[in-house]
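step: validate -> pass
step: tokenize input -> pass
step: predict -> running
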Amino acid sequence: MEKRAAIPVTPPRANPTVSYWQNPPDALADHRTTPELPSSADTVIIGSGITGAAVAWHLLEAGCPGSSILILEARQACSGATGRNAANISAVHAFARTHRIPGCDSHPCDTIDVIYDPAQWAQAVSAVQAMRKAFSEGEGDAGEVEKVLDIGTGTGIWAMDMADMYPNTTFIGTDISPIQPGWVPPNLFFEHEDMAQPWSFADNSFDFVHMRYLFGAVRDWNQLFQEAYRVCKPGGYIETVESDAMIFAEDGSIAEGSPIEQWGKMFGEAGKKIGRSFLIIGEDVQRKGLEAAGFKDLVQWDFNCPTTPWSKDKKLREIGRFNYAAGNKDLEGEYPSHYCICCLTVYLALLRKQLRDRNVHPVAKLRVIYAQKPSDAPAA
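step: predict -> pass
step: emit ->
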């Protein structure tokens, strides 16, 4: 936090994203009431964004009629972050309507960040350190890791933590939803991009490509890994972290036809209807896609992850507690949307009841794979 607080404040960036409120342009955007800056005013408002404009209107119409109000703006009226994000959010909502994706808001993102606990972070650090060692021991001279790409960055939590840990490396996080914070490490940049389209990055431009928890969001995994291969430098690495909607019990404590047992089957059916699989591990999507793209030396780690705090093992119980908090927080947002609301309400009530039963021992599969682009791959 201290490092971020030390980031110097800079003038407005050139060629900013067009404000939603100024598309199409409005004559009032550059309106100026006086040729020179007034020497005094009853009220001075810094920034004419949607909040500043609303305060000025309220003071004139309801609070202080006849008072003098001065608004200072570096760009144009209503050109602030709210206006620029509104333009992006409208595009996201249009995408959601086209693909019939419900609940297009940031609420489900909190459930993802809940399970990003210190233990998972330590595992991620260990994986990165192993890859850094592989860089130095692999074929050729990999040198320093200069650029890292985080696909489907979401809230940006992984990219921010990594950028803090490796200040000499440039990190870029991409996502179709512009929900990332603006106050980030100086070596981190967020870009608004659809991973399902051809990526805007040059060939052979990243040392490391990272992606996690994209199950249910990808129509063509082969294309996704091909794009990752294209932008990855020869000798560079990719890491893919995925889970699976299929929940089971290793000890048989989940009865056939019970709410938990139905969960994965429903997501499997929903994935077929929308053309985006939720059963990534069961279908071995990661390994097949990575090998088809041309990556080699795949290293795979599988883990049956408790989804509730049923385990007697302290660490596994902690993992289950985080997963339970994440899943129980937004079951409505996670559930396939093509079922009627009445069926949904009844089913989720029964599901929550079964998840609270500590005699039931549900786990979900987690798979981490990292792989290398051959050092002798032709450069662009």
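step: describe -> Confidence is low (pLDDT under 50) at residues 82-88, 137-143.
step: cleanup -> pass
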